């Protein structure tokens, strides 16, 4: 299922440089938000990394493993220099529809569930990102339940 914001990541066109920059910026924004949740419990588990990598490699995104590795490395560097999530969530709000932001929050929950334990810091990071993305609480809960259901099926 292709989402509009995923399509934005993979678009190529007549203004490839500009679109490439937009795609790269959105990719970094999404990766930083995912890493914020993965690292919020003070450890980035293999299962969380694999969840992020598999999702970013999905056919909808059309990223190779080396592309994903570079994206996550760049996002780690940027996250280390950042003062918080506000700039990233602001940029996400500018480039993503509400539906896309809700889908991103669900992905954040999937990362939190990846290691089988929802740490209180992971939940807090997901909640904070959701609030800064202006996702309604009802959508936040639906995203959590959907991610939980997907996790229990695995």
The first-to-last residue Cα distance is 19 Å
Full CATH superfamily name: TerB-like
Overall mean pLDDT score? 83
CATH class: Mainly Alpha
SS field, number of helical segments: 8
Shape: globular
What's the total number of strands?
A: 0
Characterize the largest beta sheet: strand count, sense, and whether it forms a barrel.
none
* Total tally of structural domains: 1
CATH fold-level topology: TerB-like
Low-confidence stretches: 10-20
Percent in helix: over 70%
Describe the structure.
With 154 residues, the chain is an all-alpha fold. It has one domain (4-153): TerB-like. The chain is 75% helix and 0% strand. The chain contains 8 helices and no strands. It has helices at residues 4-10, 16-39, 46-57, 65-81, 86-95, 98-113, 120-132, 137-153. Helix 1 packs across helix 2. It is globular, with a radius of gyration of 14 Å.
Short characterization:
Helix content is 75%, strand content 0%. It is an all-alpha fold. The chain is globular, with a radius of gyration of 14 Å.
Topology:
Layout: H1 4-10, H2 16-39, H3 46-57, H4 65-81, H5 86-95, H6 98-113, H7 120-132, H8 137-153
Helix pairs in contact: 1-2, 2-4, 2-5, 2-6, 2-7, 3-6, 6-7, 6-8
Keywords, please?
154 residues; mainly alpha; TerB-like; 8 helices; 0% strand; globular
């Amino acid at each position: 299922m292709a989402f509009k914001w995923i399509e934005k990541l993979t678009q190529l066109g007549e203004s490839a440089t500009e679109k490439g920059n937009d795609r790269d910026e959105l990719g970094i924004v999404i990766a930083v938000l995912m890493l914020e949740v993965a690292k919020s419990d003070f450890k980035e588990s293999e299962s969380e990394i694999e969840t992020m990598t598999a999702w970013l490699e999905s056919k909808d995104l059309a990223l190779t493993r080396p592309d994903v590795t570079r994206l996550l490395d760049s996002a780690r560097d940027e996250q280390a220099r950042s003062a918080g999530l506000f700039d990233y969530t602001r940029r996400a709000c500018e480039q993503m529809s509400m539906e896309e932001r809700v889908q991103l929050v669900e992905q954040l929950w999937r990362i939190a569930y990846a290691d089988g334990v929802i740490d209180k810091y992971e939940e807090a990071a997901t909640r904070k990102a959701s609030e800064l993305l202006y996702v309604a609480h009802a959508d936040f809960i639906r995203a959590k339940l959907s991610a939980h259901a997907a996790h229990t099926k695995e």
